[in-house]
Amino acid sequence: METRKRSKKRQAILDALRATCEHPTAEQLHRQLKAQYPDLSLGTVYRNLSLFADDGDAIRVGVIHGQEHFDWRTDPHAHLVCRRCERIFDVELPLEADRLCATVGKSTDAEITECAFTFHGVCADCRQKAEHISA
Amino acid sequence: METRKRSKKRQAILDALRATCEHPTAEQLHRQLKAQYPDLSLGTVYRNLSLFADDGDAIRVGVIHGQEHFDWRTDPHAHLVCRRCERIFDVELPLEADRLCATVGKSTDAEITECAFTFHGVCADCRQKAEHISA
DNA sequence: ACTAAAAACGATAATAATTCTTATTATTGA
DNA sequence: TCAATAATAAGAATTATTATCGTTTTTAGT
What is the mean pLDDT of residues A79-101? Predict the structure, then answer.
């Protein structure tokens, strides 16, 4: 039987994840939390993020630029990865996405449990900056 | 100036990739090609797969189960990852997908250059097998 | 075909992200 | 309070991938 106990550090990691929409990596959260918990181990951050994912309290965004990113939002939504600034943005899925999932489920005769939509490109900020250069 | 020269091994790797729809990893291709090219180095497979991706002759499907998978199909299509058998299937994108890309581009004011749709679930084969058990 | 320049190669060292191990500490239920 | 056990820190181990480097192929120009 695996019970889950409470710990200050686990809660702090989850709070830190929930406080941002930047889809941080284990290493980023570790660096940030080091200030408040100087003895926080990177392994602890990794382990707890995995537990959050297992428990449905977070999702893995995927390996981007070599590192796994995490998201506290577990509802269906997409991500935009900017190839300039390397940030990851949440993108609200238009209703069409639901239909897309259903269509794919039917056409493949598979049971779809999750769908990850990732768009790559240049975000609005970086596009503006690029305009200044070309102008 | 970087020119690209031809080599038998590079061609063999590309041929092997093109001969399958299983989205192999570098390691899988290496294992397979070892029979015909016993001195083929794993590094060579990695290097060439990267070149194919750079040249637009293949795409990176993404890191799945810890390893990068490659696909010779570069046209827009989605992938289904079965959590039982761990296979990766091609999924034809219904026309709606185009609209989805356009919609997202507009709503985020970003320039979308690529989009990766990955569905996770249980494939048709594995669903059938599961039925036998529950029946 | 001959040759020099550059690319491709194999072997393996290096790197980087993540997981695992172990001894210690913290949490929980009785 | 106390015993059972989950959680932790530190760092070793693992794994995928990239980089290095000396040698071999390929190719363009003769």
Answer: 89
| Rounded Cα–Cα distance for residues A59 and A74 (Å) | 6
The whole domain housing B100 covers 75-135
Specify the DSSP class assigned to residue A1: -
Which residues from chain A sit within 8 angstroms of residue B106, using beta carbons?
A: none
Task: Report the residue count for chain B.
Answer: 135
CA–CA distance, A91 with A87 (Å, rounded to integer): 13
Residue type, B41: S
Q: Is residue B46 domain-shared with residue B34, that is, in the same domain? A: yes
Residue B14 belongs to a domain with what CATH number? 1.10.10.10
CA dihedral sign of residues A75, A17, A122, B3? negative
Among residues B78, B72, B68, B57, the alpha carbon closest in space to that of B18 is found at: B72
Q: Which of A52, A60, A26, A55 has the alpha carbon at shortest distance from A41?
A: A26
Domain count, chain B: 2
In this structure, what token pair is assigned to residue A13? 């990691």
pLDDT confidence of residue A30: 98
Residues in chain A: 135
pTM above 0.90, yes or no: yes
Over residues B9-57, the pLDDT tens digits come to 999 999 999 999 999 999 999 999 999 999 999 999 999 999 999 999 9
Positions on chain D within 7 A of a protein C-beta: 5-12, 15-20, 25-28
B3 and B50, same domain (yes or no): yes
What are the chain A neighbours of B112 within 8 Å (beta carbons)? 80, 119-121
Cα–Cα separations (whole angstroms), residue A32 to A17, A41, A51, A64: 11, 12, 20, 20
